[in-house]
Amino acid sequence: MRLEDRAPAPNRPAALADSELVRLAQAGDDTAFAELVRRHRPACLKLALSILRNKEDAEDETQNAIWKAYEHLNQFQQEAQFSTWLTRILVNQCLMRIRRQKRAKLLHLDDVLIGDEVGTLELPDRRKTPEEELGEREVAERLQTEIRRIPPLLRNVFLLRDVQQKPMEEVARELNISVAAAKSRLIRARRELRSRLEKHTGRLGPATLFARA
User: Do 22 and 76 form a contact (C-beta atoms < 8 A)?
Assistant: First the structure.
């Protein structure tokens, strides 16, 4: 049975905020988590389908992401919204599936002489297509342009944390601000960048750029 299929608890208002539902779910209330899934699964499925281009694969990875979120819910500190955290898990799942599929992709060479016999030699095809290479260059250029347009107050913390991958404590120390202030600026910077990228890729497209927790 899927988590979202569990019957809701009596007298539990569906109007509870995500943060309250998370708190209840972390305390062991599965119906609170089921409500979170009910709210966010449609958007997750839509995002997974946009990445994988296959309905069954998208449904599988959406469910895998939901279970992973359920298993690791106590690690969620609510520094970001639950939907953002779940989206990161989902995108990671989709990217891992794509990598697995690429590793399984084989280049078939027929009529190859193997010893004294003629057979088929299978070699992994790890080359990127011209379309993939062009797409990656365009995304990288657009990303760099939009990062430069973020206000310096937010851009600096974004570059230190998400680009240079420095610990939050070190980021705060370099900027001479508190860790809490650094985290707040990082959230605002990511939101600003996401808003800018949405103009080019659509509402859910930029999510793949924020897969790392």
Answer: yes
